[in-house]
Amino acid sequence: MDFRTKAHWQAEAEKLKAETRLFIEGEYREAADGGHFEVINPASSAILAEVSRAQEADVNLAVIAARASFEAGAWSQTSPAGRKAVLLKLATLMEQHREELALLETLDTGKPIRHSLRDDIPGAIRCIRWYAEAVDKIYGEIAPTGPDALALVSREAIGVVAAIVPWNFPLLLACWKLGPALAAGNSVILKPSEKSPLSAIRLAALAKEAGLPDGVLNVLPGFGHEAGKALALHDDVDCLTFTGSTGVGRLLMEYAGRSNMKRVWLEAGGKSANIVFADCPDLAKAARASAAGIFYNQGQVCIAGTRLLIEASIKDAFMAELKKAADGFKPMDPLDPSSTMGTLIDSDHHGSVCRYIAEGLKEGALLGLDGRDQAGNFIGPTVLEQVNPHMAVSREEIFGPVLAVTTFEREEDAIALANDSQYGLGAGLWTSDLRRAHRLARQLKAGSVFINNYNDGDMTVPFGGVKQSGNGRDKSLHAFDKFTELKTTWLALD
């Protein structure tokens, strides 16, 4: 893939004129009260844009537009083949604008441009294309009744969907929601994070160009305690899908209960364990995957392998390989195509990650690698060793490039340590013993278990967690379960 040069991306950034308005009923418009908020480039601390700030009045307008479009049926009653054609065109338009979208992601979030180009934008395009191809292959059911009745089970779009997405993978995670929700025939209101709204705002125009009817996709940049809360409390929103912190997820469930008991689907926090046994088939490979599992995207990944559990007998050998692998992650200007590590999302988050590192050292952890000696919002790979399960760095989601290392002696100890968490998003397991792999995969309390890899997968497999990591699943055909209702039609034949 041609990642161009740093000078190229700097020049493109200078020329870029990002759209900054809300998108409601097929058109861009200012917020009802004329309010704005600043979007900051975390790599330079410069103001990227003044973006329209959605409030309750804007939410009400978007919900009215979404409901009207849904009831009118221009999208919800279109054939699956018809929806497929529009979504495939949207994927093609995203492909044609991939460099623009990638640049918006990098400027908004501080992630390396090579990752936006190689991973984020292609992943978003694949998602839209995958659900477009899937929608006309979903069949209903005929229940096994007696000869005196015919019982049909069909899927129907749920109605108005509110999708609230985070800042770490803005467009990719938005598409994880939009793909199945739109393919199923729903109307959607997308609220991107106030820290990274630009790619979602741009996507709205591409969706209109692709042929999505007005009102089917609305985009409301704004703050969670304003626009997000208003969506969650709105009585005419039928479904809320969210990726973000566990704390915010709890609030959204409360708001749904206070309003119309709308469906709430949550992909929340994580503190995933990555377990390496002495019979690991390839220590160097495991070390590289473990490094990527925590340092990729600056550790701002919900399923990051933040807890490394190593069998004591191989600890020294494995840590030597891990530190070599960590050398491949060096914080640099995100617009430099050779950069493999960018910035944290903002100065507040940078301060939070630094406080966690200091707290871990205060509680008795040892510093194996220290990535704090950086300017601005950069933090490099950081490793805390001799971490015990009672420390905050072992229990709380840091959301930064900080690895907590703990050793174990016995298999049962490893499982107990891995499951000793309020979260249950992912887990890794490195072993040559096939029986152990199957046995322990069943025992690990996690939505995904990765054996001799970490966080591999594609659109064909569901993604989500257990315990306080949330409910429901993104990706795969199972995502349709969140955005459709099952209807039984019973015909008496006697």
From TrEMBL:
<feature type="domain" description="Aldehyde dehydrogenase">
    <location>
        <begin position="31"/>
        <end position="488"/>
    </location>
</feature>
<dbReference type="InterPro" id="IPR029510">
    <property type="entry name" value="Ald_DH_CS_GLU"/>
</dbReference>
<dbReference type="InterPro" id="IPR016161">
    <property type="entry name" value="Ald_DH/histidinol_DH"/>
</dbReference>
<dbReference type="InterPro" id="IPR016160">
    <property type="entry name" value="Ald_DH_CS_CYS"/>
</dbReference>
<dbReference type="InterPro" id="IPR016163">
    <property type="entry name" value="Ald_DH_C"/>
</dbReference>
<keyword id="KW-0560">Oxidoreductase</keyword>
<dbReference type="InterPro" id="IPR015590">
    <property type="entry name" value="Aldehyde_DH_dom"/>
</dbReference>
<feature type="active site">
    <location>
        <position position="267"/>
    </location>
</feature>
<comment type="similarity">
    <text>Belongs to the aldehyde dehydrogenase family.</text>
</comment>
<dbReference type="GO" id="GO:0004030">
    <property type="term" value="F:aldehyde dehydrogenase [NAD(P)+] activity"/>
</dbReference>
<dbReference type="Pfam" id="PF00171">
    <property type="entry name" value="Aldedh"/>
</dbReference>
<protein>
    <submittedName>
        <fullName>Aldehyde dehydrogenase PuuC</fullName>
    </submittedName>
</protein>
<dbReference type="InterPro" id="IPR016162">
    <property type="entry name" value="Ald_DH_N"/>
</dbReference>
